[in-house]
Amino acid sequence: MHERLSFYVKRNSVIHDLNPLTKVILTLALILIAFTSPWYWTPHLLVLVAIIPLSFIGKVAPEFFRTAIRIILPAAGFLFLMQAFFQPVGDTVIFKFYFLDVTQESLMFAFRNATRVIVMVSAFTFMLLTTHPSELMSDLTRRGLPGQFAYVIISTLQILPQMQAKAQTIISAQRSRGLDTESSFLKRMGSLSPLIGPLVFGSLAEVEERAIAIEARGFTSKKVKTSLHEIPDHSSDKIIRWGLVILVILSIALNLWPS
Description:
Blueprint: H1 14-17, H2 20-36, H3 42-57, H4 61-86, E1 93-97, E2 100-103, H5 104-130, H6 133-142, H7 147-176, H8 185-190, H9 193-216, H10 235-256
Antiparallel strand pairs: 1-2
Helix pairs in contact: 2-5, 2-10, 3-5, 4-5, 6-7, 7-9
């Protein structure tokens, strides 16, 4: 059974052909603009006119929306409810829920912050879907980032899909031994203990394997390293990166501009 070690989805698209650093800067630019723009509706516009269209351009819309429904929207919805009920701002009470007052100002505040979270998580999700971890690591090390740091970054990006793949393998193995994983909720909760042990100890064993891999790949060597697979960096990538940096600077400047 093939195990996906990253969220990367191979497609033939303009986004996939971009340099990995360009997609990293695009992700950071979307997040910084969402959090620094002085206009209230900026995060919402970024979702509608940037992130969603980019998912279609990158041909990863099905995977992106699947992740949004499962992870992004529940997290943003929980944040919205917490801040709407417990953020003590404003005097225009819309409705009361026991001892909690929900004001118009708290709703606006919660809606903006929830949308910012959607932008942040969606931008990272889009980058992971369109950027292969090995290409990102190769490009970062080629630009001078120490191999240890690049390896830590890529390992972090791969933790969740690796844990998912390992958990699925353990569940299949335990199911073949007669473990009940598809009955009632309480029985499934009781079936977790045989799954947690192998998952935790297997992850600890992988930590040692990663440490050995770092030494085997010569990350501590001071000599200049070469790569078998060169990552192209076109002039269009540089123009896009500089354009994004300018947009971020403008957003910060407008936010600091005295009203």
